[in-house]
Amino acid sequence: MSRNTPDAVIIGAGHNSLACALHLLSRGWSVAVYEQAAAPGGAVKTSELTLPGFRHDWAAMNLSLFAGSAFFSQYSEELGKRGLNFAPTSHPFASVFPDGAWLGISQDAEANLARIAGLSERDAATWQELGAAFPERAAAILSVLENPMQKHAIARLAGKMLWTSGAGGTLDLAQFLMKSPRQWLDETFESDHVKATFGAWGMHLDFAPDVAGGAVFPYLEAMAAQAFGMVLGQGGADTVITAMVEAITARGGTVECGVSVERILHSGGKASGVELADGRSIEARKAVIANVAPGALHCLTGGSGETRHDQAMQGFSHAPGTMMIHLAMEDLPDWAAGPELRDFAYVHLAPSLDQMARTYQQARAGLLPDEPVIVCGQPTVVDPSRAPEGKHVLWLQVRMAPGEIKGDAAGEIAATDWESAAAPFAQRALDILERYAPGTQAKILAKRVVTPRELEAENPNLVGGDQICGSHHLSQHFLYRPARGYADGRTPIKGLYHTGAAVWPGAGTGASPGFMLAQKLAGK
User: Fold this and answer.
1) What is the pLDDT of residues 166-188, one digit of tens each?
2) Distance CA 104, CA 340 (A)
3) pLDDT per residue over 326-362, tens digit each?
4) What's the rounded Cα separation, in Å, for the pair 178 and 476?
5) 264: β partners
6) Residue 307 contacts by C-beta under 8 Å, 6 or more apart in sequence?
7) Helix 121-145 crosses helix 109-117 at what angle (to 10 degrees)?
8) What is the pLDDT of residues 5-18, one digit of tens each?
9) CB-based contacts of 311, cutoff 8 Å, min separation 6
């Protein structure tokens, strides 16, 4: 190998790859990152998708997990010097309902209590109890979600939990982690509006109301919103990407975009480098790290030589897709339920658990949902710099949407290809928004619709528009993400490692898969 051969070659320049690269560089490794897209970031990108001066987050918008991550805690000073800047909000999210009611969660605990009491006095009392218990319970949950899924780490964690919580408390936590959102919400609250407000968060992570293992996400999002608020990126979510790339470059690493990796080079059960689409072969001294979907990993290697691993990669299950609608706006929506809703970063249009369950099943069946869940992001409420003075952007996630269209649940859209179905399905979503905020469509200056197919074309990890790179259902989570025995990023091929949202602990902007792998490789 030449003196210019890097210690690690990383495939893909998503935030997990960049976190991994930066930590390895800090530990003395040399690193080269190769990205097939024209710009780094994966799903964390920002650009002027509609009109000049209007900056839209391509997919990910919420950076709370990144701001609270172990990775950022270690590298905050360095990234801050490279321009990383957050835009926090004390009004994270709200839900609106067809009857004119709404419920929002902010960092004002008294206001939250009053809003919930307006729907149910009993639920308000429960909310107070949950808030009081949150620090202790969150610590126990996060001790699971932030630890490697390795035998020794699990044994150490189990011992700690038994010591601090006892057998009963440990078993109670395990039971909670297996509950569906509906089961926990029905046990905990009586108001259907309260249940829907929190249950909507499950839809962000492929946890429809009746999917086992999903209760933890509505719980954590709801309680963390009151405790910590929400964090966006100043000027766009790509502030984290720009800062990490600059930090990597300053340390001597390279990030090359616009070049695809055609295959991973390996022989005799050991990886040696990668072959690029332009004909170059890049050797790696210590590791090849692939931030790719499991199916792509199998294609790049041609198989690992271990049947169980190969079957897991080929059979990896993806969540339904998402359509994005980016709007340049003359003004914010005038929410019929009340002007206070203009203060919230997210407004969910998800009226009931039953509607969410129906939408999810329709998408899983390949149907365009008759009433998709709409996540309406209002980032310029938090960060006015994303639009010209007095103007705004709206960031709409349309959940769920099938990657392959087999029909329309409403019987109105005949097209089964996304090129033809995009416009009428986007209009369906905009019409739903119009019902809750009349006059919104008249304020649209420009629109950019991004289909599930376009999301995948830009970032192949988002298979069928799956923004979380794989279902987080129990059969594909914890020890099984992406396969039993490989949740720590190892593969059967020596020197080849797997990272990204498909690897434990999964999706989100926290960069844990990449950071934990780098710690493993570098010995912390």
Assistant:
1) 777 778 788 888 999 999 999 99
2) 9
3) 999 999 999 999 999 999 999 999 999 999 999 999 9
4) 13
5) 274
6) none
7) 130
8) 999 999 999 999 99
9) none
> Under a CB-based contact definition with an 8 Å cutoff, are residues 277 and 293 in contact?
no
Cα 347 from Cα 316, distance rounded (Å): 32
Residue written as tokens 């009586």?
190
DSSP per-residue string spanning 500-523: STTSTT-SSTT-HHHHHHHHHHHT
Tokens of residue 180, six digits: 């569906």
Separation CA 135–CA 165 (nearest Å): 14
Q: Are strands 93-96 and 346-349 parallel, antiparallel or unpaired?
A: parallel
pLDDT at 14: 98
Statement: residue 157 has pLDDT above 90:
no
Q: Quick one: DSSP state of residue 405?
A: -
Burial class (CB in 10 A: 0-12, 13-18, 19+), 524: exposed
Q: SS in 3 state form for 409-472?
A: CCCCCCCCCHHHHHHHHHHHHHHHHHHHCCCCHHHEEEEEEECHHHHHHHCCCCHHHCCCCCCC
Residue 178 has a CB neighbour count (10 Å cut-off) of 14
> Which of 369, 353, 373, 349 is CA-nearest to residue 361?
369
Residue 137's pLDDT is what?
83
The candidate with the shortest Cα–Cα distance to 13, out of 460, 493, 447, 516, is: 460
Neighbours of 433 (CB within 10 A): 21
Q: Quick one: pLDDT band at residue 149, thresholds 50, 70, 90?
A: confident
- Reduced to 3 states (helix: H, G, I; strand: E, B; else coil), residue 475 is helix
What is the layout of strands, in order, in the sheet containing 31-35?
254-257, 31-35, 8-11, 287-290, 496-498
Is-contact 274 497, C-beta < 8 A?
A: no
The reported pTM is 0.94
Strands (DSSP E) found in 98-144:
102-105
Phi, psi of 66 (to 5 degrees): -65, -45
pLDDT computed for residue 159 by the predictor: 57
pLDDT of residue 150: 64
Question: Helices marked H in 44-120 — which ranges?
Answer: 64-67, 70-81, 109-117
Measured CA to CA in angstroms, residue 251 lies from 28, 35, 285 at distances of: 9, 19, 18
pLDDT digits (tens, 9 = 90+) for 200-243: 999 998 999 999 999 999 999 999 999 999 999 999 999 999 99
Phi, psi of 112 (to 5 degrees): -60, -45
- Tokens 């987050």 -> residue: 57
pLDDT above 50 (res 478): yes
Q: What is the pLDDT of residue 176?
A: 87
Find, among 392, 382, 383, 395, the residue nearest to 344 by Cα.
Answer: 382
Q: Which burial class, exposed, middle or buried, applies to 167 when counting CB atoms under 10 A from its CB (0-12, 13-18, 19+)?
A: exposed
